[in-house]
Design a protein that fits this description.
CATH class of the largest domain in chain B: Alpha Beta
Oligomer: heterodimer
Strand order of the largest sheet of chain A: 3-2-4-1-5-6-7-8
Number of strands of chain B: 8
Number of domains of chain B: 2
Largest sheet of chain B: 8 strands, mixed
Largest sheet of chain A: 8 strands, mixed
Shape of chain A: elongated
CATH topology of the largest domain in chain B: Rossmann fold
Structural class of chain A: alpha/beta
Distance between the termini of chain A: 27 Å
Strand order of the largest sheet of chain B: 3-2-4-1-5-6-7-8
Distance between the termini of chain B: 11 Å
Largest interface: A-B, 52 and 49 residues
Structural class of chain B: alpha/beta
Number of strands of chain A: 8
């Protein structure tokens, strides 16, 4: 689908002007839903399914559920993803084996869906699990389908029951019926019946399939469908459901670049689970179906979903509340700072994370200037301190600082700056946490989320308080921050200021390698600002 | 949809639904709907019958922009048949051979699908039904390019007019297999120019059809499209986008498993089936 942009990019466009809004307005949601609709249609999801689906997404996006770690676009994407997985089935179902062998599996589908190849794959897969499968050649229609099954059977190392030569000769219903007796006699414990490909509109052939089903009483009827199929998936799936009432679905040719929207259509229209995915021409290219993987494939959302998971992992709300409590009680130590920083780093490379965000193209240059190693350096300095020093920075006299600098491979100046910044910030945070307004000289525009490489000389640590001119409102907003609650996006965006302002996004050093000991909640907030963009 | 008395919003919604479910793709659908809205406004009509006629004309015009005749004037005329797995290449070859035999042309089929189990036997059965000759690989898993070479060589020595080469199905994302196609073409061209490279597309395919066409055009130099399985419920609207974006015309239509179920492409008939 190289010609169509992916959904992440499109959503980024839709949300570019949404930066300052916290909650989604109906108009915003409509715009997004339109994009999702297009994306789903491009992925060949059936129109009716798309309509249902977008309706549900719209409802949920306008509802109250707001995940604070995510920006509006991501919230929608997450809702979409959850709904997709819900339709595709929570987890992969396995084959139901008969209590009394043999287990009978019948394959049905359109011509060229890949039934015969799949029969071989399934047999090989079952043989690996110590089953003794028998392949039954009940496709007597297509020229040399019987021979093909025999070759596939010998490649898979399993037995093939092929009493009729095929090519239009023989009765498939009789072959199927006889095969069961044969399997019981020879003690095969799984029988896989390969049938001829047939169109859903071909009444005679559908009747024949139904007759085969009646004759063998299968435990599973698998509907084999090509992942590349378009809108016709619904008509075909319905026809097969009426004709042979399949119990599960197998999606083939998933190694191509089709998005496979058919999976969603079939699962949604028939309510039958997708059990297997076939991913190549070798007999081993066969695996259980994973709904979550399929969901991201349909929407082409791989990156953004990973990001959402990472962001959610990193922003542990409880943790944030704990930090706020520490600020208030003046027990926030360098150790907590380190912990916070490591948590942040646990989210993976920050640069990579930001790169994954939609609409970050404009930030590329600043991103390149941001030196991720700053975090590593700050970490090194703190880790070179003793436990006592981390808990009480006042212990740090000259000789301790020299030791720490040597231990971390930094200079004493670096250590001094870290400690100074940490103290300044901790003091400020304490004030804020108690509801006061910190006295910071030169409090200009609040530094934003930009990754300014060349920031000014002595820019003070960032103020996290409210900018509101109304004292009452300010107090309320500050209290909200203090209690560890994240600001709604509106507030955060306001305090983020213009993206062009030259601030250090993570409270970490600029180009001169000067680590800034700002408290880590600030960092979390900063990163959040990115996520809210 | 067109049975109502007046064109209203519902008519437009139904039209959009019909086009999307016909696999035209959302972009083409939007284009067509916008175009028809403009026309309806210009001619100031409210009659759904007019809309239907305009739709038919618009589609026919778009479908008939390209010349859909097969060029088989070389002797031998070499036809390479390519496509993804399971679209009906082998069946198409059988039907095409019969189609040519009906015009009393001598035909040889090269069984260059040496990969899939029993593919050679399958095409041999079709060759027999069509009354065409066949060149089989001399050993299992032989290089398909060499089978193609031998087939053309056989045709030249025996004065056979038309050579059809079957190739293994391959997904367009498999770089190595796509290069193999390029090689087959290169090797054949050492002996005779390739007259036609036919890409077989399954009518049930959705929007992936375009990606398929683009990849096969790049690697095999496709000159015409064959649309198969049109006897099913799929409308295959995606071929419009394929034809327009790639400039490659549809040349043949397959409509069943019988040996005579292959016809040339006629925009008028095709559109008739599409919109009724």
């Amino acid at each position: 689908m190289a010609t169509f942009g992916n959904l992440s990019d499109r959503l980024a466009d839709t949300f570019r002007n949404l930066r300052t809004k916290g909650k989604l307005s109906p108009a915003d949601v409509d715009g997004t839903v339109r994009e999702i609709r297009r994306a789903l249609l491009d992925a060949d999801v059936a129109l009716d399914v798309v309509k249902d689906f977008t309706g549900k997404v719209r409802e949920r996006a306008l509802g109250d559920e707001v995940n604070k770690a995510l920006n509006p676009a991501q919230q929608v994407v997450q809702i979409v993803n959850e709904e997709l997985i819900a339709i595709l089935g929570g987890e992969a179902r396995r084959i139901n084996f008969a209590k009394k062998p043999p287990t009978i599996i019948m394959l049905a589908g359109l011509q060229g869906a890949g039934k015969t190849t799949l029969a071989g794959k399934l047999a090989k897969w079952l043989a690996k699990d110590n089953h003794t499968p028998l392949l039954v050649a009940a496709d007597l229609q297509r020229p040399n389908a019987v021979q093909q099954l025999q070759v596939v059977g010998s490649q898979a190392g399993v037995a093939v029951y092929a009493p009729e030569p095929g090519n239009g000769v023989g009765n498939p219903v009789k072959v199927a019926r006889d095969s069961i007796k044969w399997a019981v006699d020879k003690q095969y414990d799984v029988v896989i019946v390969d049938t001829a490909g047939r169109l859903g509109v071909d009444a005679d052939m559908m009747k024949q399939a139904a007759d085969i089903r009646k004759a063998v009483q299968p435990d599973e009827v698998l509907f084999v469908i090509d992942a590349m199929i378009g809108q016709d998936a619904v008509a075909t799936a319905k026809a097969f459901q009426e004709g042979v009432d399949f119990t599960g679905v197998v999606l083939t040719k998933l190694d191509g670049d089709a998005r496979g929207g058919a999976a969603l259509s079939v699962a949604s229209v028939t309510g039958r689970p997708i059990i297997f995915a076939s991913t190549g021409e070798s007999l081993d290219d066969f695996e259980p179906f994973y709904p979550d993987r399929m969901a991201s494939r349909i929407l082409d959302l791989g990156d953004i979903l990973t990001l959402i998971e990472q962001a959610q992992g990193a922003f542990d709300e409880e943790e944030a509340a704990k930090v706020a409590e520490k600020f208030r009680t003046d027990t926030f130590t360098l150790e907590d700072f380190l912990g916070q920083m490591q948590q942040l780093r646990g989210a993976g490379s920050i640069k990579k994370m930001i790169g994954m965000l939609p609409g970050m193209g404009a930030m590329k240059e600043q991103l390149n200037n941001f030196d991720e190693r700053e975090i590593v350096r700050t970490e090194a300095i703190i880790q070179s301190m003793t436990k006592a020093e981390r808990q009480n920075p006042k212990l740090l006299n000259g000789s301790r600082r020299v030791r720490i600098a040597r231990g971390s491979g930094m200079t004493v100046t670096d250590v001094n700056q870290l400690v100074q910044r940490f103290e300044q910030a901790a003091k400020m945070m304490k004030t804020v946490a108690r509801g006061g307004v910190p006295q910071i000289p030169g409090m200009g525009p609040v530094p934003g989320a930009g990754f300014g490489g060349g920031r000014g000389k002595q820019l003070p640590p960032k103020k996290k308080g409210s900018k509101s001119g109304n004292p009452a409102k300010r107090a309320v907003e500050n209290a909200a921050i203090a209690s560890g609650e994240k600001l709604p996006a509106g507030g955060a965006a306001a305090s983020a200021g213009a993206s062009g302002s030259k601030g250090s996004g993570f409270g970490l050093g600029g180009s001169n390698g000067r680590p800034e000991g700002a408290p880590s909640e600030q960092e979390l907030e900063s990163l959040q600002k990115f996520l809210r963009r | 949809m067109f049975a109502k008395r007046l064109i209203d919003q519902e008519t437009w919604d139904d039209l959009e639904t019909a086009l999307i479910t016909g696999d035209f793709g959302i972009d083409v659908t939007d284009e067509i709907v916008a175009d028809l809205r403009a026309k309806v406004a210009r001619y100031n009509t409210t009659d759904p019958k007019d809309l239907q006629r305009m739709l038919r004309e618009a589609l026919e015009e778009r479908f008939s922009k390209l010349d859909s005749t097969l060029k088989l004037s070389e002797r031998p005329a070499v036809v390479l048949v390519v496509g993804v797995n399971g679209v009906g290449k082998t069946t198409t070859i059988g039907k095409f051979a019969k189609f040519l035999r009906n015009y009393d042309r001598s035909v040889v089929i090269g069984a260059a699908d040496t990969f899939r189990a029993a593919a050679v036997e399958q095409v041999a059965t079709w060759a027999e039904r069509a009354g065409a000759q066949i060149v089989r690989p001399q050993q299992e898993g032989q290089d398909p390019a060499s089978v193609a070479f031998q087939t053309v060589d056989f045709a030249k020595r025996n004065g056979i007019e038309i050579v059809i080469i079957d190739t293994a199905g391959r997904l367009q994302t498999k770089g190595g297999l796509m290069d193999e196609l390029t090689k087959i073409r290169r090797v054949v061209e050492k002996q005779a120019p390739v007259s036609e490279v036919l890409l077989v597309l399954d009518a049930t395919t959705g929007q992936n059809g375009l990606a398929q066409a683009e990849a096969f055009i790049e690697h095999a130099g496709v000159t015409g499209l064959v649309l198969t399985k049109l006897d099913g419920s799929a409308k295959a609207g995606f071929v419009l986008a394929v034809q327009e974006k790639t400039g490659i015309p549809i040349k043949l239509i397959g409509q069943g498993e019988g040996i005579n179920d292959l016809t040339g492409f006629t925009p008028h008939v095709f559109v008739q089936n599409l919109i009724g």
